[in-house]
Structures are given as structure tokens and as C-alpha cells.
């Protein structure tokens, strides 16, 4: 069995991951951790996440950045389900101690230090590690994920958007003179478990945020290889993301070519479902899949692509599990689909 520890296990993505590992035939939980001064230190994991009562009988252990190194000797891999700033330092310590880390935060997803500073508001101290990090978009980077000790798991919106757009970009079917426009809506778990006025029950309706300034725009740009306009929205539901992209196809490109590139890109990748109907959040909620469907308008030359994921699964814990499967030599979907 592959023994793994989860830091940030009281949070939403950490809890999902604990659930996935608990039922995985090849992995087992070595330990569940929270921060040094956490209000949840020494509480039972299932006291916070009641769905795991009588299933995952574990205590949340507090851990400091400095103590993280000791985990490396006690398990085969560490998942960081922690805030970006906390991950920066913990990743460095794990890698220096010879460990394997799957970081769910945005700390190691971008390569340009000035872009990190602009969008995350801190200066990154470890440019060498940024170069070493493999971006864990599982269907696209599986060969590198298998060999890496530092896997940076993509953000939730980028997973939905890149899954929809990469087949077209790789096949050069997008008109490079017209930026793809992405409008995406997320459920409130996307913002994490910590209390905030903007995420409280009576404040959430359906509204845009981070317009022209969200950190996922440079993440999509970098890993797609072409700039986009990305506008996120918050919706009044718990989990899921639906992303609608409107883009102009390159001159001469047609519907048949589009169908073919999607088919070829995702042949043999069972967690991507090329649907014959428009995706919905209901169809992906609590599943590890990304659903994609598209339609070409011959009159205007524009293509509409819609993708949907569960932000906590394909957008976070599910994809982290896919990466861990690949890194430890299992099929990408092992333990994720029955
Ligand atoms: N929610 C989502 O849909 C997605 C989230 N992500 C990213 O994944 C990470 C986790 O997100 P999410 O689960 O939503 O966040 P939550 O706020 O729900 O959970 C964060 C967890 O980290 C712990 N934590 C905070 N600071 C530290 C620290 N210094 N050391 C150790 N543990 C710490 C918290 O516990 P405590 O503070 O009590 O110690 C808690 O367990 C974030 O970086 C987020 O950006 C990525 C994709 C999707
Ligand atoms: C609804 C909501 O607030 N969503 C989060 C995205 C969560 C996520 O995937 O992203 P990171 O790992 O990059 O934080 C946001 O917009 O900040």
C-alpha cells in the first residue's frame, strides 16, 4: 500500500481527498494534519466531516512548517490542501527532504515570478522549484507526472477551461487573432471552508467577481499557450463549475475537424466524457469527470464549448488522486470510478 499524509485535512479539498484515499484499493492514510495553531487541532476528523463517521477514525494533528520534514520519513507522499502561502514553504521542505508532494494550492502553478507577484501578492522565493514543478493536468501531462516528485495540481476553473480548450489549441484550430472568451460559474465550496462575509448564505446570489484580475486567467494563459479572457462568477449552490467558452475557429476549420480533435485527444482517458448533450453541474456533482460538449456556428465561424466539473473532485482532490495514481504506477482512474 502507498501511505500518504494530508495537510489541510479539515478543509473541503482535504476532506474529499481523505475520503478518496480511504476507499482506494492501493493507498492508505498515514496521517491527517492541520496548522500548528488550528482551532481544530486534536479534534476527530469525523467530528468536522460527519459523512465519514464510523469510517475514517482519525485525529487532526497540528503541524508546523518546520515539522513537515518529519512526515517525509513516515509516508510515501504528502498532499498539501493548504493556502498558497503555506504551500510555498512546505513544498520546499518536502522536496529538500527527498519526499513526493502533490500541492493543491496555486503556489507552484505559474513560472513567471512577476505574474505570481501581481496575482498572488507575494514574491516567490523558490524559482528553481517553480521550474521543477510539473503541472498536474492529468490527461495532458501524464508522462511528466509519472516521473516527478513535485506535482502542482491545477486550479478548479483552469481544469474545466483547459480540458475544453487544449484539444483545439494543440490542433491549431483557434483563430489566434480573436481571444477565446470564458464565462464560468462556481459553487461556494470553491472558496474553501473558512468563514467570509462574501461567501455567507445571505450574501451569495449569482454575481461576477475577479473581473479581469482573477489569478486563474494567467494560469489558463500559460498552460493553454495563448491568452484568453476569463470571467468567474459565484453561484448559490455548493459544488460544481460550469464554464462556457466562445471562440473563433481558424479560417477554414470546420465542425468535422473539431469533432475529430476532441475524439483523438481524449481517446483512452475515461475521466473526460465527450457528451452528446450540454453538460450540467448535476451530471458531474460528486463525480471525478469533466464533461464537454460543443457546437459550431457555420454562419459566424464561432464555436461554443461548455465544460463542467465538480470543483472539489476533478477540480482538486479527484485530479490530485489521478496524479498520485500516475506517479505510483497505477491507471489514472484507479479508485476513482467503480
Ligand atoms: N475549494 C476548491 O474548490 C479548490 C481549492 N483549491 C486549493 O486547495 C487548497 C485548499 O483549499 P480548500 O480545501 O478549499 O481550503 P479550506 O479553507 O477549506 O481548507 C484549508 C485547510 O488548510 C489548513 N491550513 C491552513 N493554514 C495552514 C498551515 N499553515 N499549515 C497547515 N494547514 C493549514 C486549514 O486548517 P486550519 O486553518 O484549521 O489549520 C484547512 O484544513 C487551497 O490552496 C485552494 O486554493 C484548489 C482547487 C479547488
Ligand atoms: C468560488 C471561489 O471562490 N473559487 C476560488 C477558486 C478555487 C480554486 O480552484 O483555486 P485555487 O487553487 O487557485 O485557489 C476563487 O475564485 O478564488
From TrEMBL:
Q: Which reaction does it catalyse?
A: N-acetyl-L-glutamate 5-semialdehyde + phosphate + NADP(+) = N-acetyl-L-glutamyl 5-phosphate + NADPH + H(+)
Quote the InterPro entries the UniProt record gives: AGPR (IPR050085), AGPR_AS (IPR023013), AGPR_dimerisation_dom (IPR058924), AGPR_type-1 (IPR000706), NAD(P)-bd_dom_sf (IPR036291), Semialdehyde_DH_NAD-bd (IPR000534)
GO MF, any single term: N-acetyl-gamma-glutamyl-phosphate reductase activity
Q: According to the UniProt record, what class of enzyme is this?
A: oxidoreductase
Task: Output the superkingdom of the source species.
Answer: Bacteria
Q: Tell where it localizes.
A: Cytoplasm
Could you confirm whether the keyword Amino-acid biosynthesis appears in this record? Answer: yes
Pathway assignment reads: Amino-acid biosynthesis; L-arginine biosynthesis; N(2)-acetyl-L-ornithine from L-glutamate: step 3/4
Q: What is its EC number?
A: 1.2.1.38
Q: Provide the function of this protein.
A: Catalyzes the NADPH-dependent reduction of N-acetyl-5-glutamyl phosphate to yield N-acetyl-L-glutamate 5-semialdehyde.
From the Swiss-Prot or TrEMBL record, give the protein name: N-acetyl-gamma-glutamyl-phosphate reductase
Recorded source organism is Catenovulum adriaticum
